[in-house]
Fold this protein.
Amino acid sequence: MDSATCCIQRFGPEACGFSTSEAAVLMGGAKAVTDAASDTEEWDDSHNSHLPEWRRECIRAYGDCQNKGWKGDCSACFDYCKGQHEWPINKCRPKKKGE
């Protein structure tokens, strides 16, 4: 976490020289980075190290699709990924808020 984010959390945006909207953007970015880091730390696919990277990404996305309740047909998207070497994010993806 950077010093601006830390300051905002401890003292509020105005005390750190930021408007409320600037603070929201900074805090949103910090949360996205933290969430992304925690997602990659949770996944251990070292047992698949012999596979090509595209295949490992397909397996990882399929696992997330199944375990995190993504929108779409996870099995069909996995089959697509095996053939095209990329996950069809337009068909299988995390649900948006309210979906």
Remarks:
- The mean pLDDT is 78.
- The helical segments are 3-11, 20-42, 53-67, 74-84.
